[in-house]
Write a structure and sequence with these properties.
single chain; 127 residues; five-stranded parallel sheet; 4 helices
Amino acid sequence: MRAETRVCPAVLVVEDEPLIRMEAIDMMEEAGFRVFDAGSADEAVALMERHEEIGILFTDVDMPGAMNGLGLAAHVRDHWPQVFIVIASGVINIDTTALPEGCSVYPKPYPTNQILAELKRVACVGE
C-alpha cells in the first residue's frame, strides 16, 4: 500500500515589514511549502508573471506602492483566478465587500495552525 503524497503549490508572501515577512516565510517553509516573497504589490505582480507555480497568495493589507494588499488580491483574482488568496492584517475592520470572492482573512498576529490547515486543505492535492 502506497502512502498518499501531497502536492502543494508555491506560496507568494507579500509583506512590507521585513521581520514579519521573514516570520511568514518561515511558517510556510516549515509546513513544506516552496516560498517566494515580495515587499510590495508591484514586486508581487512581477513574481506572479514569472512563476506559474505560485498557487497561493499570502498578503498583508497595508503596503506602499501602486496598490495595497486588497488591490493586489483583486488584481490576482482577475489575472490568476485559480490562485488561492489569504489576506492577513492588523486592521481590525476590513471592508469585506472589497475582498475578491473566495479570499480568506486572518488577523495579525497570525493564527499559524489555522492558516496552514486551511492552505493544505484547499490548495494541496493528493497524488
